[in-house]
Amino acid sequence: MKLKNCISILGVSALSSSVALGGVSIVGGTAYVTGSYSGTIVDPTIYNSLNVDIDNTSSPILNNDVTGGDVDVRGSSSPIFQETVNGDYVNIRDDSTPTFEKSVTTSSPYFVAVRDNSSPIFKGDVYSNHDLSINGTSTPNFMAKTESGRYVYVFGNATAAFTGDVTANYGLSLRENATGTFDGKVSSNYYLFIFDNSKSTFNGEVTTGDYISISGAAEPEFKNTLTSTGSYIKIADSAKPIFHDDVSVKGDVTISGTSESEFKKSITSTNGVILVQDDAKVIFYDVTSDGDITASGNSITEFNKATTGANSSLIVKDAAKATFHDDVVSDSNITISGTSESEFEKKLTSTSGTMDIQNDTKVTFHGDVLASGNVTISGTSESEFKQNLTSTAGSIFVQDDAKPIFNGSPSTTIAKGNSKPIFNAPASNVEIRENSEAIFNDPTGDIYISDTPTVTFKGTSSSKITLLHSASPNTPILKLEPGFTSSGDLIIDSIININLSEPTISGTVKLNKISMEADTKIKLDNDVTMDTPISTSVDKTGSLEFLGDAKILQDIGSKTNWLKNVTFDTNPADISLEGNIYANSVSFSGSNISFVNDRSITTGQSSLTYHDSSLDLDTKKLTVSGKTLFTGKTTFKTTFNVDGGGKETGGHIVVDGANSSFNFSGATPVEIILTADSPLSPTDTYSYKLLIEENGGTIIPANNITFTPNENNSLITWTYDEATHTLNAKNNPAQLPVIVAKTGGSEDDVKVAATLASANSSNICDATNVVMSNIGRLKEAQMLEAVQRVQTTPGLGARATEISSAILNELEARITSLVTGNQFADAGVAAGDSNNKYGVWANGFYGRGYQGRLPHSPKYNSRLYGLTIGADAPINDDVIYGLSMTSVRSTTKFSDKKANDVVKVKSLVFSFYAHRDLGRNWFSDVIFSSGVNRVKGMEKRVSFNNPNQLAVSKYKASTYSGQLMLGYNHHTKDNVIITPFGSLGYSWVDKIKYTETGAGAQNLSVQSGSSYVLEASFGGDVAFQTLIKGVPVTPEIHAYISYNFKVKRPTVIAKLMGACTPIPARVAKGNKLFYNIGGEINAISESGSIEYGLNYEIKLSKKYINQVGGLKLRVNF
User: Could you tell me the pTM of the whole model?
Assistant: First the structure.
């Protein structure tokens, strides 16, 4: 029964089987559930056609269908609808949390609204005949199917969860800060709007009948397919959609703004285009569009697969950056323009269109590129093709200022404008035109060149290069890089004799051949190397013009087909001629011409001209045919040589043929320069003709000829006979005394120096003739140095004397110190001293020496340092003996002509010394030493071939020395001791044998006999002792003269390696008279246990000075 009147039941009501608090009231057709009512409403009256208003904190349970009226749930209520709700509208608001366990249906034109902070749960289907509106901060949960007769709105800060399918018959809109989760299918007959800051997740399929718009800062995520069966999809503003599954649209796809989109599977536009623009960032996995695919603006797009439909294009323009990771197919054109940057990582195909790369774009193609129509690369674009580029029905055009790089093979290519293509792989058919600058690395196909391009060739080539005629100026430049070689030909085309190519070629020209099929000109740039034969198809056609230095390694022209003109008119220029020249006319101006082997120059009448030029024939033959004319300054350079077998060769010119002439009568000045390095002739003369007439050829000589012989051997004199054009040489042995005089040495010195200097280039067993011949070959400066270096570098002998002298002086100082100490002790000058002492001592010393130049001995400076340790003790009151060991290092450096020669000696010397008082102030001293010496010598050698060879010698030798001294001690009244003395000394150096290393054939094998010196010395010393602060101090000075009255110099036998006879050796005569001055200061500690002192010695002779100083310490026991 339907109640029309207001019924109010308070407390226990017949309408409720259980009432806790609050109540239910019916007012004007509305049932109000208020307060905190929480009972179950069982009376059916309230369920029929009444509006239901649930408020406050009530939580009623409605266990019957609610039909006919409005349902308003508000406040903080939490009703449970256990059966269906079928009314006009359902309005859920405030903080309510209703639960609908079965379906909810509203009638038109009413709606379902979820708003405020409500959190309804819909467990059954929801159908709104009008709109479904979700807003506020509501968090509804739709657990079954949801359908709206018009729109589904999710906006505000609402968070909606849809577990079942969602159908919006008009449209679905998510906006503001709303969040939606859709687990089932979503379908809209018209549109899908996602914008503002909304976030939505679609786990099921999404289908719209019209368009899809995603904008604002929306972040939707589509985990299943998205289909628009209507007009378009737009992604704009800063939206960030993610599409995990296929996307399909029957219309355009436009992605713009700063949006960031990711399509993880395919996207298909069946009746529209795909456009990425503005600053959008997009990642496509697989794109298929019936229309164009365009990346524009500042967009950044990543494509995997991309395919356009029939008659549709792929376009990358503006400042877009596009990367294509997989194969790309465009049914129509491909256009890349603007300042865009593109990268195609795999194959790119245009099945029925063209490809344009233009403006300032930069693009890299990692895979093959295939276009059915023309490929045009223009503007200032920079493109790189790492695999093949093919136009199947057209050509590749490179124009404007484009800079493509072809690392794969391109099909037919035409480069023009100011383009700069680089071909790094074989090219089948390439044409370079206009002002292009092309580079070919290892080309293989045909290359055609016309107009004014610059073409550079590198690597190895098999290409045929054809220079075409042109309707415009036709002067191409060909640059052949170092190392470039080609098995192909260079052909100058002659199909039409209008604007024929006149190329300029630079670098090393190493082709199969150059064929001139037209009467045109080739210019060869400065420093060119012509390693290619040049031929003409018609006799006496074609010209060559050399613009500077040139090396001509092969023939120019042939015996049957001459060139018309060959000119070398750049002044000055160095021309090296290794090939023959056949031309009607050849001219040289300001040229320095050299010949590598025997050559010929064949010309017509009055057609070989030289002006201000020189010919360097070396030892080669030049054959000239035709009329040869010289004007201006003319120089003929020739070289004469005699080889090891005695064969004589000299550079000369042959004038061959009855109509041939060689006219240098009008040249001025004329100089003939001979270079020769001649051995002495057994016949006393050499002779050969510089100019030879053959087969009726004639020579018209000059009137004034200057002959300049540059003969390395000063014992040979050359002359030139103008009448017979013959050069003659004669031996001139009278020159030898002049050479000897200039060196300041003897003739033996000169011969030895010449033998050493020529050791690398002569048979040193062929003694007399070879040595004499090589004397003449040495330049004056070489001879001066060589003779000086023949002087023996003083080796161990001189060093041993200095070392022995240093040790003897040291031991004499030690004995003097002992004796004077005892003498002063006996006299009572100082207490604490004893004449019976045991002790050990050490003395470190350092010395420097200088020797001026003497006959056969150069100047040198020496340095030595060492340490002596010893011990001595008394046998009785009259005898003291001692033992010592000395280690010495000595280095001697030579100067003047022996500069850089060095001798280093390491010595270890053992000594015995003794002193005996003979009575009445007489005494005797004896010293004996034995040493082992390790010597390393380094000596520079003068050579023709190597001026800086260094001979190194290493050897070991023994030395022995002894000295006997007799002296007298005289005591003055002032306690000064004056001691005159005399001595005899003997020193001996053992024999030496060694072989040098480091100087090749100049190494010497040396044997030196033993040597000795006997010397006598006379002198004296003065000593006194004083106390300084209680310390006894003993100064002593001495001076003596020594004279070497018997000297045995060593016999030296020195041979070059492999020599049959030794080289005469010169042993320097040293000084015999020496002056020695020295002194020492000794001090003794108060206890007498420590002695210390300083000593100094200087030794003087003619141009000789040697100084040694030392520091001594002794410990007494």
Answer: 0.61
